Amino acid sequence: MKHGMLAVLIGVIIGTGTVTAHAATTATTPETTYAAVTRLTKVSYYTTMGANTTHNYPVYRSGAYQTAATNMTAISAGRTYANKLIHITREEVVAGKTWLKFTYNHTHTGWIQQTATVQSTYRLVAPLIGQRPQLPTGCEITATAMMLAFGGAKVTKLSLAREMPRSSNPNKGFVGSPYKTSGWYVFPGGLMGVVKKHMGSAKNMTGASLTSIKAQVHRNHLVVVWVGNVDGFSNHALTVTGYSKSRIYYNDPWTEKRASMTNSTLTKHRRADAYRALSY
């Protein structure tokens, strides 16, 4: 009987010890804690990857460093894409730092800190619309059509040309007919009503500095600028779509091409047409 009680006691002690040991192991196993994303924003713009010579910023698969198991180890580095144009589609903030989801050449995708990129470069891709052949003198309304279409309005150059008021005063409407080579021009004031109808707001930016125009584009609001002596015309209009530290990027309704010119060159052409500009 004593031997039996002893066996029972030993079994209880061993069993208790086993349970206690297992419980202790479970309690001390560290839980993986990932970094919290405080803000995630869907965007769509282009910028340039920096040289990454002083610091070669790592690239992660699906988000900022330590935000998931897939983001504990880098898959690449910024220097791989040095000075390349990249498409940014997401921004997220983690521990006070902004991270960007980028795609290069439609095939390589990753996440990198914003400081690895050239933050003075910001480019948007707007629909490219040519004024010819229907609107040989309708550069302003065609440039406006590109601006409004980018902003989400369901418009065409011809639908806007029909809506555009006509007047002998270019601040109130188009002088002549944009359908004819003998047509003249329209100034921002003559298009304010058309822009407001489709966007809910209109902004006459005549006299605005180049810095103000860049800031407007950075808000994802394109800007139509009036220029003199471009494409052989004394008066012309372009749709500004982006900028870098030294250049302005635009869509040209006459050539139906995306192009750029230096800040100083654009300023010279803007000066020749009274620094007129229009946005929303």
TrEMBL record:
It comes from the Bacteria. Keywords: Signal. The keyword Acetylation does not apply. Residues 1-23 form the signal peptide. Residues 39-122 form the GW domain. PANTHER family: LMO0724 PROTEIN (PTHR37806), PEPTIDASE C39-LIKE DOMAIN-CONTAINING PROTEIN (PTHR37806:SF1). This is GW domain-containing protein. It comes from Secundilactobacillus folii. The lineage of its organism: Bacteria, Bacillati, Bacillota, Bacilli, Lactobacillales.
